[in-house]
Amino acid sequence: MENEDDVLPLLQSSPETSTSVNHPDVKLQVKGTLSIRKKNCNWESNETTENREHCDSKNHSPTLDANKVWSDINSVPRIPHIENLDSSDSLIGRERMKIKVIQGCISKPELTFGELKLLGCSSEGFVNDDMRRILWPRLLGLKNEDLTPVDRLENVHEQIPNDVYQQILKDVVRSASHFPPGSTEEEIAAFENEMTQMICWVLHRHKKLNYYQGYNDVAATVLMVMGLQNGLYVLEQISLKFLERFMETTMEKVHQELFFIFALLERVHPTLLQHLENVELFPHFALPEYTTWYAHKYSEHRKLLHRLFDYFLGSPTLMPLYLSTVVVAHRATEIFNTTPDMGHTHKVLCTLPEDLPFETLLVDAKNLYRKYPPESIETDVRDYDNKRRQKEQQWKKTAEKNRQERERRKRLQVAVPHPRLPYRVGSYRTIAVVTVLAIGIYAFLKSSTGLN
Asked: Among 130, 113, 99, which Cα is nearest to 241's?
């Protein structure tokens, strides 16, 4: 039975949304108040660790962010009617219903960030890129006056180191899968140029941020939704609020954080964790999903990818690791049926199926976060990382020992020079002549000395 505290009233139902609906995340109250269940979403301020809101010590439920999204009534954006949305013809019933919920909610001057995050995290997310263009900047705390046009982007690459710029160019070329099929070469070239400008602009503005491979996939996703000008500021805020630890000088902290997957598997599927440890596999197979928010894996599945961004933008920064955990647990049977060695298991885990039930998995990840928030398992994470360091030291020692053994054998196999006959036999004819002469000399000596 659902508790009254688990339901968040969002708005007074308008006539068009007052009908009965059958949806796991949205329901209509008797008095006409449209509500979304809290338990299907996560709320947390996505600031740095020091400023992040703490979970309730009793039930680990993140505190709802009650700050207002709109500064005044004039800042509430104009929301397009569902008939005017680009993909309205392809929307299914529950997507149309969710858009109506969103339209009613964001028109409220009293809308809070907690409610906005809830809308993005709950089933179907923001549904449509037209809605995301309006809501992603607001979700990141950007106001209309913050989105001022930027000039002279064509030369911004000159403000970053050339070796970094060259690496960006190489990675951008590999990001063309984000662009719709059938695009012309001119469209793809323009897309790549704008993506390069976005990345270089953010790196120029924040010298402490270092480029990493995979950042281009995040930039491509933002560009596809937001366009260049507004995308500059959205990518900047995502980088500062979510990706900053990926953009440090080293990824040592990130490698340690990956062991949240093992610490969580120990609690939800210990047999699977034991299997992964037996094949000596670390959780680094999840690094691309973690650092790109699945943009590297699902670049060609824009609807799914953009929905995942809705979820992560309204969730705590470590939520991608919780999602990776439930994905791995969901695939347990497939992993157990794989040849039990590091290579085969790693290959399976690095290849994500296209038919994963993500809406269910997102709810599972949220529940897992509530049950085992990061602070409750940090000690185990450090222990697993220490085991990783020890194992790597063992591997290095073994590799060095094998290298020394190869060097020793190589020295022993050096050929020792032997004296050679001064005359080199050149052909079978020479051998025959020499043999006949030897036999003749032997016969002569034997007959002349009376050896018979």
From this structure: 113
**Cα(215)–Cα(200) distance, integer angstroms:** 11
∠ CA(89), CA(95), CA(101), 5° rounding?
120
CA-to-CA distance for 96 and 84, rounded, in angstroms?
12
- What dihedral angle (degrees, nearest 10) is formed by the CA atoms of 83, 86, 90, 95? -70
- Distance between CA 452 and CA 448 in Å, rounded? 10
Mean pLDDT per 10-residue section of the chain, whose length is 452 residues: 41 36 38 42 40 38 69 74 62 84 86 92 92 93 89 93 96 87 89 96 96 96 95 97 95 94 96 94 94 94 95 96 97 94 93 92 96 95 88 77 81 64 60 80 72 48
Pairing of strands 26-28, 7-12: unpaired
Residues written for the chain: 452
pTM tops 0.70, yes or no: yes
Distance CA 179, CA 103 (A): 28
SS3 label, residue 78: coil
Question: Cα angle vertex 131, ends 80, 239, to 5°?
Answer: 150
Give every CB contact of residue 66 below 8 A, 6+ residues apart in sequence.
112, 113, 114
Nearest to residue 134, comparing CAs of 230, 243, 240, 242? 230
